[in-house]
Structures
1.
Amino acid sequence: MVNSGASDLILRASGRPSVRVDGRIRFLPGSVPGPGPLLEVLEGVMGSERMRIWRECGSVDAALDLDGLGRFRLNAYKQMGEPAVVLRRIADEAPKLEELNLPSEALGELAARRRGLVLVTGVAGSGKSTTLAAMIQHQNERVERHVITMEDPVELLFQEERCVISQREIGTDCAGFHEGLRHALRQSPDVILIGEMRDSETVTSALDASETGHLVMSTLHTVNAPQTVDRILSFFPATQHEQVRMRLADNLAGILSQRLVPAAGGKGQLPAYELLVSSPQVRELLAEGETAELARVIERGEERGRVSFNRCLRDLVAQGRVELPEALAASDRPDELVLALRGITSSHVRSSHAPRPPRPGRDGLRMLGGE
């Protein structure tokens, strides 16, 4: 896995071992040991308490240090009643924002804030943890703060520079995110990082912490800013939605949604992102529950701190860093991306009553390529 530069190693009892390189699955020679031997290995790595959780819940997370190889995040799970495990490689040192092909200046400004809620969202494996680690490291190099992280499990180990960084592991150092958050407020924090917001209790505690003058950073498994707001509201009964929207309007500092796209030439992946930084207009839309309008506001990008996925993808294609088919596959609105790349906005097309362009497929790609 390390030699091939893979991000993940997938092992299933008696199955074919495989790795993920540049987002694509590759099979390795040989086969994984059967259920008995694999279970024995997991027992030795995970420990009795985590194996109890694995037997009861069907999956459990842990971290693993291997001399000479590095640190890995491990998820053991069941498939067809038999053991399986996925290991993800963790960087040896915290990345720098400038190295991630993300809007580093805007993210640095968010990391420098003294209070508020900063969310990094995306599907599993899209680089959310890496982005948050880079934002923590940005603070670590520049300001004196006490940073408390709550992770499941603890992944990258920070080397303290100007910050005190207390890393707490769910299940080992605290029972859960909500419990850890409740006690974190008594531990003199300036910044609180929550590995993931999974329920209403955690969201409420995060909003409480930001309202009392802390910078709270966390992740959600959502694909864009409007869906992020809707997901947070879905944790609560409808009777509380207005109150939660008002609290979000007052405390949300910014949302970065990201997804990885294969780089041109098939070597590596690049992040495509959507950025929404709070402003008076954004706060008004949140308070009024106009989450659908948020998408249009981001797409227009009229103010600094707003970048849509299509704008980001358009720039990546124009720079030759991402191939057009990959950009269209990653876009939420591929029709509009085709128009943008042709130098025509969808609003201009509608106002001039021009025929609607074909949906991106073979015909759409051929038309664009021909021009």
Note: Residues 299 and 311 are 8 Å apart (CA to CA).
2.
Amino acid sequence: MASVRIGIIGTGNVGSGTLEILDKQAGELEAKLGFRLEVTAVSSRNILTKQVAHCPAGARLTERWQEVVEAEDVDLVCELIGGTSTAREIIEAAGRAGKPVITANKELMALAGEELQNLAASHGATIHMEASVAGGIPIHTVLREGIAADSIQGFFGILNGTSNYILTEIEAHGTAFGEVLAEAQRLGYAEADPTADIEGYDARSKLALLAQIAFGERVQPAQIYCEGISRITPFDFQYAHTLGHTLRLIAAARRTAQGLALSVRPTLIPKTTILASVQGAYNAIWVRGAAGQDTFYYGRGAGPLPTGVAVVSDLMRAARDLRAGGQARVSPFSFRTLRPSRLAPIEDFQSGYYLRFRVKDSTGIIATLGKILADNGISIDAVLQLPSEDKANLPFVITVEPAREAAVRSALAAMQALDFLVERPLALPLEKGV
């Protein structure tokens, strides 16, 4: 049977992993499909001057992505360059040419995925994006098909491996944030510019995309409250452990009466929860359905081969559809059309809170802070102070009973002018169980 011919654009980590799997597992893939997947064209900016491992000897190499999309011997297009400009041009051009596209681009698909899918569908093509979230974890397929009959009530995830590596290294060794970040960069876990990872923006794009699939509402990343991990210290883990908790960067989505409650932020979670055991650069997603209740998905969230598995699995789906002449596949967003989003204001979020202070030690500090909290209707649960010799920079923690985010923000604003504060207080949600 004739092969299905593939054009790959981008030979970075994901592209190289995809080529390796297509090469090393060609026989097994053919046995599963009943036909071969043949790479006929490969494009990247410097492909003519560098050696690309696992690139088939007969594949055409070009620095112009247009030559891949427009080629008559390319049936499927893999967009693996990332970003939102050139990548969008590639996907639009492939869609207009009626060619299915496989992408790992979470940022672009979160911003404009529905629009790009509609364009592709109008020309008889499809978009496949399993690799865009959580690397080797097939969370799109789970939400879109595996538990499609359920009504998702919420999900909670560790969606950024870099941040999780940094947090678990601080926890394990008591090392300062900056030192762990530098080590993560040396090991290749963090980029030279780590902003997207450590400030939560990468996880925010992934959360927006998963929320669209899970709830059928259009969600833009900019609509989601986002807070990074750069202020987390070893002291925070010491206090968290005292409370029977640990710290993780949690991407959270819940249905509420006010709408979808979405956030990415460092959160204290009980050490007894399964998410607390996720270590290093791994990802995990805990999904709660109305009928099926809780399910859990865990695996490597990034890397050439885990993400390459997701890309090639999408290639196999697209190739089967192409060979069968089918266009009735489930939408990549699960719902046939997405509704306008109704998001709950972050100010309405309610939980217990962990408030960490660094102060110049003096008398009356607790009384002053307690009065401000009381003035905002917030009740203190506990005050924790571990031994410290530095009285000019003394960390301690106040935990409070469940309160609205708006009240906590108001209290923190009132504390800003206090002359005994070394830095502004850190406020983190304190979950009893997720």
Note: The chain has three domains: 4-132+304-336, 139-300, 349-430.
